[in-house]
Design a protein that fits this description.
heterodimer, A: mainly alpha, 4 strands, B: about 700 residues, two-stranded antiparallel sheet, 30 helices, about 40% helix
Chain lengths: ~160, ~700
C-alpha cells in the first residue's frame, strides 16, 4: 500500500517538474514605434506613421538632402522646384508610377541619370556623388513610402 | 528473526530500492530532457526548417552554425551568443521585413555584427541563451535591450562628433545645449558655455516689476485668454527659460529683488534733431520701420508670431529671442541703447552691432514700440504692493535657493555650479541605481528619464528641477542623447575607438577680427569647422568669390537662392569695412584645389561659349536647378551674375568635383570631359549683371534651404 503511495507521489512530482523543461512562450511585447530606427509620416495620410529601419532611415536622410527639391511638393526650404522641371517628376511616394519599376531600373536611373535610361535629362546622374549603399538606401526608402504599398516580387525558387 | 521475517524485510528493502532507483533515474533524466527542450535548440531546428522553404536553401544551410554560436572579441569585452538564435543576421537574403524573427537579417549598416558583436549597440545580456535573459532585465543582469528607436544613443557612446546618420542623437544633443541643461547638470561631452542666461546685474533698468513677475510665472508671451500657449513656439525652443514652481509671494519677492537691481539709470539716446523732427509727425513711421525691419532681415534670427487663417505660427529664426511682444518687456530707452551696442549691455551677446543711421534707428525702434507690444499681456499680474526690504531679502535668498545663479549672473552673487545631479553617466545606470521612491513610474531607465523631464515631480516630490515643455519627438531625442552618456568606456578596446566631441575655435585678430566680432559672422557662417550652419561655409570663400563682388555683397547682400527666408542681414557696413573683410577672406580662406594664378589671364573663344550654352541647356539641362535671368530652378544658386561672382578656376574645380570643395553639397558630381568643363566655364563667365542688384523682399515662411 505504502509503496503504491510513494510511486504516486513520485509520478506527481515528475508531472510537476515537466512543464519547467519547456520555457513558457514569451512574446516580447514592445510598441512597434519603439522598434523603428526612424519614423516618417505618410505623405497622404498624416494619421499613419511609417516605421523605417536603419537603411530606410538613411534613405530618408539622403532623400531630404538631394531629392526632395524635385520629388516632393514641399521642401525644408519652402516651395518645391517640381513645377520648374519639365516633364514633372513623379512624387516619391507615387506607387502607381514607381512600384512597377524594378530595383535595378531605379538603381540605374539614379546612378546614371535620366538621359541614360530614356527618361528626362533633368534628372542628373548621382553615381559619382552617392555611393552604391546610399542609392540602395534611397530605393529602400522609396519602397517603404509607396502609396499604394509596394509588394516585393516573388522570387523564382532555384 | 526467522527466515520468513527476513524474507519480508528484504522484500521491502528491494521494493524501496527499486522505487528509489527509478526516482533517481527520473531525476537524472530531467536534465537531458531539459537540455533537449532548450529554447535555442528549438530556434535552431526552426531555422533549418525555415531554410528549407526559402529559395536560397543551400546558402542558408551552408552558413548555418549548429550548437551555440558566439562572437568573441576579448579586447572589447564582447561575448555575444545572440547569433545562436538570430542565425540569419548576416544573410542578405533574409533582410525583408516579411522574414519572421529571430531569423531576419540585420538591415545594412556600417558596423558588421561579426566584427562588433551585438551588445555594444543593442545592450542586453550577450552571453545568455534564453530569450528572456538575453532581452530583459533579470535579477542577475540589469541592462535590458535598448529599443531600436533609441539605438542612436549607442552610436553616441563612441562618436562624440555629430554623424549625419544619427539625426535623433544630434537633435537631442543640440536641445541639451540649447536649453542650457549644463547650467545645472554635468553632462558628458557638452561643455558649459561662457554665458548661459542673461546677466541680470542691471535688469531693473530694462524691465518692469510686473513684467518680471509675469515672466517668472509663465515665460511664454504668446498665449490666449485662458493662458494657454497658442504657438507651438514654446515647444520649438522659445523661450529658453523654463517654468519654475513659485507661489504668489515668491513671485512677488523675486520680482521685487530683481527690479531693485537698476544700477545706472538708462540714458535716452538723443536722435539727430533734424531726423526726429522730420519723422515725429509722420503717421507712417511704424510702417516704414517695419519695412526697414524686414529689409534688414532681423527675422533671420528673431521670430514673430503671425496669425493666418486662424492658426498662429512663429515665423523667423531661433538664434535670438522671439520678439512678438518685446515692447511690453523692455523700456524704449533701453531698446535704443541695446540696438546701438548690444555688447555694452551683455558682453557675450551674439547680436551684431549694426551700423545704424539715425533715421533707420528711429523708424525701427518706433515700429517695435508701437507694434510689437500687447497692452493685455500684464493683465493677469496682480497689483504688486511696493516692496519692503524683507521682500527684497527673500527674493535674494530665493534667487540662490531656486538655482537661478546657475544660469544668470548678478554681480556680487556667487555663481552656482552643479546645482542639479551629475548626469554624465546616466545612460549606463542600472535600474537599482535609480531612486524611484514610491512613484508609479515603470522601473526602467527610459521611463525614469522621460518622466523626470515631462514632470520633474513624478519621481521625487521635492525635486527642484523646473518645468520644460517638449513634444514627444524632442523628448525622444533628448532621451537618446542622455542614454548615450554612459560614462567612461567599458573596455580598453572601446576606449581606443572613442571620438571626442571637439570644438574648433576661430578668433581672427587685427582689423578683420574687429569686423568679425562686431558683425558676429560666426553665428551663421562656418570657418574651418567652427561656427553656425545657417549660412554657407566660408572656409574656401577666397577661392570662390571675386573681391569686388564680395565688397558689393557685404554692403548690400543680395539673394543668391530665391527660396531662402533666412538671409544675410543688412549691416550697413561701410565701404572700408567691406574691403577689409573681402581682402581677408580673399587671402586667408583659400583651398589648394583651386589655383587662382593659372586662370587670371585666360580668355575663352566664342565657340567655347556656344558649346557651353548647348551643354548647359540641352545635354545637362542645368536649368532644372539653377536660375539664369528669369527662368530656371530654385535648388542651386542663381547664376545670373556668375561672371562677376565666381572666378574661372573655382568654376572649373567645382565642375570637376563639387564635394571636394564643399563636402556634402548637393550639386551632383558629373563625368564632364575637360573640354566640357572649359566650355561650361566660358559660358557661365559671360553672365554679368551691371551694378549691384537691389535687395529684393520675398515673403516666404519656412526655414532652411539647399546649400
Amino acid at each position: 500500500m505504502r509503496g503504491r503511495h510513494s510511486i504516486l507521489i513520485f509520478i506527481l512530482f515528475g508531472l510537476f517538474l515537466l512543464p519547467d523543461c519547456r520555457e513558457r512562450e514569451r512574446t516580447l511585447a514592445v510598441k512597434p514605434q519603439l522598434r523603428a530606427y526612424d519614423l516618417e509620416q505618410d505623405w497622404n495620410d498624416p494619421q499613419r506613421t511609417i516605421l523605417l529601419d536603419y537603411q530606410q532611415a538613411q534613405g530618408k536622410r539622403i532623400f531630404y538632402t538631394a531629392c526632395v527639391w524635385c520629388h516632393a511638393d514641399a521642401t525644408p526650404a519652402g516651395p518645391s522646384n517640381r513645377s520648374n522641371v519639365t516633364p514633372t517628376p513623379p512624387l516619391l511616394n507615387d506607387g502607381n508610377v514607381l512600384n512597377s519599376l524594378s530595383g535595378e531600373f531605379l538603381r540605374n536611373v539614379i546612378a546614371l541619370g535620366g538621359s541614360a535610361m530614356g527618361k528626362s535629362t533633368m534628372m542628373p546622374a548621382w553615381g559619382r556623388t552617392l555611393t552604391q549603399e546610399d542609392i540602395q538606401a534611397v530605393i529602400a526608402y522609396v519602397r517603404a513610402l509607396a502609396q499604394p504599398p509596394y509588394q516585393a516580387p516573388v522570387r523564382p525558387s532555384s | 528473526m526467522s527466515d520468513e521475517e527476513m524474507g519480508i524485510v528484504s522484500r521491502r528493502f528491494r521494493l524501496a530500492f527499486a522505487i528509489t532507483g527509478v526516482a533517481f533515474v527520473a531525476v537524472l533524466a530531467v536534465s537531458p530532457v531539459k537540455d533537449y527542450f532548450r529554447e535555442w535548440k528549438r530556434y535552431s531546428k526552426e531555422y533549418v526548417q525555415y531554410a528549407q522553404i526559402r529559395p536560397d536553401t543551400k546558402r542558408l544551410l551552408a552558413d548555418f552554425h549548429p550548437g551555440i554560436d558566439q562572437i568573441w572579441i576579448p579586447e572589447m569585452k564582447v561575448l555575444d551568443r545572440c547569433t545562436t538564435c538570430h542565425q540569419g543576421i548576416t544573410q542578405s537574403g533574409l533582410v525583408d521585413p516579411s522574414v519572421p524573427q529571430p531569423f531576419r537579417a540585420h538591415p545594412l549598416m556600417p558596423h558588421h555584427p561579426r566584427e562588433w558583436g551585438c551588445v555594444i549597440c543593442h545592450r542586453g545580456q550577450g552571453a545568455a541563451t534564453e530569450v528572456s535573459e538575453a532581452h530583459e532585465t533579470t535579477l542577475a543582469w540589469e541592462q535590458p535591450l535598448l529599443p531600436a528607436c533609441y539605438i542612436q544613443a549607442s552610436c553616441g557612446v563612441c562618436h562624440g562628433e555629430d554623424l549625419p546618420e544619427t539625426p535623433k542623437l544630434n537633435r537631442g544633443r543640440h536641445l541639451l545645449e540649447q536649453f542650457n541643461c549644463v547650467g545645472c547638470h554635468r553632462l558628458q561631452g557638452i561643455q558649459r558655455p561662457e554665458m548661459i542666461g542673461p546677466d541680470l546685474t542691471e535688469v531693473g533698468s530694462k524691465e518692469s516689476r510686473e513684467w518680471i513677475y509675469k515672466w517668472l510665472k509663465e515665460p511664454m508671451t504668446v498665449i490666449d485668454s485662458n493662458g494657454n500657449a497658442t504657438v507651438d513656439g514654446y515647444l520649438t525652443g522659445q523661450p529658453r527659460m523654463p517654468q519654475f514652481r513659485l507661489n504668489g509671494q515668491e513671485l512677488a519677492a523675486l520680482a521685487a529683488y530683481l527690479s531693485s537691481l537698476n544700477g545706472q539709470p538708462e540714458e535716452s539716446y538723443r536722435f539727430d534733431a533734424r531726423v526726429a523732427a522730420a519723422w515725429e509727425k509722420r503717421p507712417d513711421v511704424a510702417e516704414q520701420g517695419e519695412a526697414r525691419f524686414r529689409q534688414m532681415f532681423c527675422t533671420t534670427c528673431h521670430s514673430l508670431a503671425v496669425t493666418r487663417a486662424g492658426e498662429t505660427k512663429l515665423i523667423g529664426g531661433d538664434t535670438g529671442p522671439e520678439l512678438t511682444k518685446v515692447a511690453s518687456k523692455v523700456n524704449p530707452a533701453w531698446l535704443v541703447n541695446w540696438l546701438r551696442d548690444p555688447q555694452a549691455r551683455l558682453p557675450h551677446s551674439t547680436m551684431p552691432r549694426y551700423q545704424w543711421s539715425d533715421e533707420d534707428l528711429y523708424k525701427v525702434t518706433h515700429y517695435i514700440t508701437a507694434s510689437l507690444t500687447d497692452p493685455d499681456l500684464l493683465s493677469t499680474v496682480p497689483k504688486l504692493k511696493s516692496p519692503g526690504p524683507e521682500d527684497i531679502q527673500l527674493g535674494k535668498r530665493l534667487f540662490q535657493d531656486k538655482g537661478c545663479a546657475s544660469c544668470h549672473v548678478i554681480q556680487g552673487i556667487p555663481s552656482q555650479k552643479d546645482f542639479g545631479p551629475d548626469l554624465s553617466g546616466l545612460g549606463g545606470k542600472n535600474v537599482s541605481q535609480l531612486d524611484f521612491g514610491n512613484s508609479k513610474v515603470p522601473r526602467n531607465l527610459i521611463s525614469y528619464i522621460q518622466s523626470k523631464i515631462v514632470d520633474p515631480l513624478s519621481v521625487n516630490r521635492a525635486a527642484r528641477m523646473p518645468q520644460y515643455y517638449f513634444n514627444s519627438t524632442d523628448l525622444d531625442a533628448i532621451t537618446t542623447a542622455l542614454l548615450s552618456m554612459t560614462g567612461p568606456p567599458s573596455s580598453s578596446g572601446l576606449a581606443k575607438l572613442m571620438r571626442p566631441r571637439v570644438q574648433a575655435v576661430f578668433r581672427p585678430a587685427g582689423s578683420f577680427g574687429k569686423i568679425y566680432e562686431r558683425y558676429q559672422c560666426v553665428v551663421c557662417h562656418r570657418f574651418n569647422g567652427y561656427g553656425g550652419t545657417l549660412a554657407p561655409d566660408l572656409s574656401f570663400e577666397g577661392s570662390r568669390a571675386e573681391r569686388e563682388w564680395m565688397i558689393d555683397f557685404l554692403i548690400n547682400p543680395t539673394t543668391l537662392r530665391p527660396t531662402l527666408t533666412f538671409r544675410m542681414p543688412q549691416f550697413n557696413m561701410s565701404k572700408e569695412e567691406a574691403a577689409i573683410a573681402a581682402d581677408y577672406l580673399k587671402t586667408v580662406f583659400q583651398t589648394k584645389a583651386v589655383d587662382l594664378e593659372t586662370q587670371s589671364l585666360k580668355s575663352y573663344a566664342s565657340e567655347q561659349v556656344t558649346l557651353g550654352r548647348q551643354l548647359y541647356e540641352v545635354k545637362y539641362q542645368c536649368q532644372a536647378c539653377h536660375t539664369l535671368g528669369s527662368t530656371g530652378g530654385y535648388v542651386g544658386p542663381n547664376l545670373s551674375n556668375a561672371g562677376n561672382w565666381l572666378n574661372a578656376a573655382w568654376i572649373k574645380a567645382w565642375l570637376q568635383n563639387p564635394q571636394a570643395l564643399v563636402p556634402g553639397t548637393i550639386e551632383p558630381r558629373r563625368a564632364f570631359t575637360d573640354q566640357e568643363v572649359e566650355a561650361l566655364t566660358a559660358y557661365l563667365l559671360t553672365f554679368k549683371q551691371a551694378g549691384s542688384p537691389k535687395t529684393k523682399l520675398v515673403a516666404t515662411n519656412t526655414r532652411g534651404g539647399a546649400r
